[in-house]
Amino acid sequence: MWDKGLNRGTLAWILLVLAGLATAGPTVPAANQREGKQKPSGGGSSFGPTIVEVMPTPSSLAPGFDKERVWSGYDDWEPAVAVDPGGAYVYQLTTRYSGPSVCEDCPFPLIAFRSSADGGNTWGADRSLAITKKKQNDPQIAVAQDGTVYAAWLDQYIPGVKFVKSTNHGDSWSAPIRLTGPDRPPSWSDRPVLAVSADGRDVYLAFNASDSYVTSSHNRGATFGDNVKTSNDSRYWFHSAGGVAPNGDVYFAAADFSQSYLGDSHINVLRSTDRGATWTTWRLDTASQLPRCDWAAGCYFGFLGSSAGLAINPDGTIMVAYSAGVSPGAPEQIYVRSSADGEHWSARQQISDPSAAVNSGFPAVASGRKPGEFRVVWQDDRNRSEKAWNTWHRRTSDGGAAWDAAIRLSDLGSGAPYKKARGYRFPYGDYLGIAVDAAGTAHFVWGEGESYTGPGGTWYTKLN
Fold first, then answer.
1. Confidence of residue 9 (pLDDT cuts 50, 70, 90)
2. Which residues contact 382 (CB under 8 A, 6 or more apart)?
3. What are the structural domains of the chain?
4. Cα 399 to Cα 88, 242, 341, 351, 374, distances in angstroms
5. What share of the chain is helix, strand, coil (3-state, %, to 5)?
6. Which pTM does this prediction carry?
């Protein structure tokens, strides 16, 4: 995800340069405004590191619910979260555009990392993953059963995706490994997605250079094999989630679009049964042309496009949640499909608000610790009469046959300029996160903002 501080003229120039450099693969489309994050002149802003907490709304009251909290009060977005499957550690990453720097001489935006040793009750200081001189975006994080923490992010388009790991809960990190570049085609890359086997031996990173690519490590991230190209269709691919099944098969969820975002988009699952050597792409659904969002300041055509979350239960069941529209320009809804083998999938089932007028998007999925348990989180504007968005959660305990009622996670009615009783003004960023810890508590993190261009912040909560 590109720096939202770029103006369109600068972005266009960069894309032309990239088009000349990307001789080993497809070029970055000049029409691709999804990567054209931009802010009004003046740079980032903040509303201060503290918030005013109010009582949660009745719709949020649920056993074990911890009201939402803001991470920093600075201009943060597109966060990620992971938990230690055998302990109490919780980890969060966010992309930061303003505030105190977490590393010396690092330019904004940068990736801020923090950890909690007590299940998310208290948090350590913000730190960096790696000191680089490039603008950082698109953080990813995962944890193996032995507690090793794996992370990836984007150092601009060039050099692109980088990878690190930590064996001491993030106190220190390995030297970054660069996964694309002139000596490692493709020469540029965008939007990494990380998937790690339970034992930490197999590490997979999916990313795009317009086409879809996946690279694999089978020595716990010490080295990576060649980048394997999985598409060749002149479309723009965005990976959004991944996981490794108990039998070792690996899956990624991805959507593909035309270079202009016009026309249909597709929701796909990539699968490898040979540890990443070869890949099969399964098309789960087709979405009609996405809706526009020019009613929100700075929002580009493409922001409300299809995306997908994916998780794998310990019993081997795979669940995908995705956003899709049923007619051109119509608001997208959240659907789920599940599979026991990665080949045969259930019929799609809508779990978002039933009103066809509600915009829904940015789904993420996590597996629970019990067989058949999954949790899904997304954002929607069902309070659209007041121009308010919220973050919602639903849970199934039987693989999707039945679902608990939706719980509103964004329960604070104040605390930032963009918040009011019925919700926040707009989703902040393309991605959010969810992870379930060893005790069965779900940890959520997402972005709220004034508009697409911000300012905004990273918010989080947890729910038993």
1. very low
2. 353, 355, 358, 390
3. 8-463 (2.120.10.10)
4. 26, 18, 13, 13, 7
5. 5, 40, 55
6. 0.90
